[in-house]
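This follows on from our talk about sequence and fold. Please put the record directly below this note.
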Amino acid sequence: MPKRLAWLLILVLLLSACGPATTEVTPTATKTPTTEAAAQATFPPSDTPAPPADTATPVPTTSGADTTPMVPSPTPTQTAATEAPTDVAAPTNTPKPAAPPVPTGMMSPDFGAQAFLWWRSEVADRDLTLMSNGGFRWVKQWFAWNDIEGAGKGQYDWSIPDRIVQQAEDKGLKLLVRMDREPGWAGPPPQNTDDYVDFLSAAATRYKGRIAAYQIWNEPNLAREWGNKPPNPAEYTAMLKASYDAIKAADPNALVLTAGMAPTTETSERAMFDLDFYRGMYEAMGSGGSTGYFDMLGVHGAGFKAPPEKDPGEVANDPAFYNVGDPYCPGERCRVYSFRHIEDVRQIMVDNGDANKKVVVLEFGWTSDSRPDSPYYWHAGGAGIDEAVKGDYMRRSYEFAKANWQPWIGLMSAIYMPDLDWTPEDEQYWWSIIDPSPIDQFHPRAAFIELCLYFNEQLGRPRCEYAFY
C-alpha cells in the first residue's frame, strides 16, 4: 500500500477512536496539537469532563505523513498599535467603517482560565478560591447541554449549574459558560438549532444578571463538532443569530461570544481552515455586518513551539517552529503555529467593519508533554518546553497583549485549572497550570505562580500569596 494511503488509514482509525461519548458528561478538556509527522489535519483536543471516577478521554491529534494540523484555539490580528502581521495579503476591498463599540465590562486584556467545577463541589470551591486569590477575574466553565437537558425536551436539571453560578459569585469571579454538546434526543447541529435556542433561553432567563457571557458552540470548523458533517460557516452563523436573539431577549446585558475555531490548515470534509471559516461567517452575515449576531469574536490560541512574541510570518516559514509534516508548510496557512495567529483573525474583523468589537481568547496555552510517544511531544518536551518555559510564555502572552493588542483584546482564558482525575497519561494534564491534586493538597506549577504574580501586580494587589521565591 502506498505510504500516503497507509497514513490516511491510521488517521481514520485514530479519529474514529476519539469521537465524543454519548453519555452525559461535563467537559474535560484537551488541546489542539499536531504531531511533527502530521500533515493532513491535527485536531484540537475536546474539553469534555467525565464523572469523578473516570478520567477524561483526550482527543488525539492526528499523526502520520498525511495530516494538516488543527491546532488549539488562537487568533487575532494587530491593529494600528502594532506592526501589521507579516505574510498576510492586503485586503482587496476597502475595509468597512467600524460599527460602534459594544459595552463589555472587560479589561484589555482581562484575566481568566478554564476550570472543571462540575462534579465535585469541594474541589470547585478550592479552585475558585485559588483563582480569586490569584488575581483571575473570569472563570470559564462548560455547561454541557446533555448534562442539563439530557432526559428529554424541557426536562432540565439545574442543580449543578445553580451551585456553580453561586460559587463563582461567592468568589467574586465573572462566569463565562460554553454551551454545546447536544443530548441524543435533540440530534446534531444544525438541525437541533430550535431546541438549542430553547435551552439557551431557559438558561439566560434563569441566570439573568448572573452569567456574564455565553459561548455559542465550540469549533464548528471541525466536522466532529458539527454533527460529523462538513463544516459550514453559513449554517453556524444562522445558529449564532438565533442564539443571540434568544439570549438578549432573556438577558440584554449578557455577552454573546462566537465559538473559537480550531486553528487548522486543513480544508476537507472534516475540517475548514480557520480563517476561511471566519471569512465565511462574515459573508453569511452580509452587508449589515455582525450587529445582532455576536458581541465579541471568540478565538483559540496555542503557541506550539514558538514564544508568544514570535512573528507568525517567521513561524510559517521556519521548520524549527511549524509542523514539518504539514503539507501546507512552509506557507501562509502555517501561521497557525504561533500565538500571534490571533492577529490574522483580528484583521478579518477589521476588514469587515468590526474594529470596535473585542476579541476573546477562549483558550490558549502551551503544553509541557514529556512523553516521547505523545502526538504533542514535538512542540512540548521535544521542543524544550518544560513547566518553567510554559509559565514564562504564559505570563509574556499577557504582557505582549497589553503592549500591542489594546484596546481590542478582551478576556484571555488560559488552560487549565485541571480536572482532578487527569493523570500523566492524559494530554490535558500537561496543558494544566496546577497539578491535579486532592482537595487537601495544592501543587502549583510555574504557570500558575507566574500568572498569580503578574495578575496581582496589574490589579494593584498584594504580592501573590502562593509565590515563595
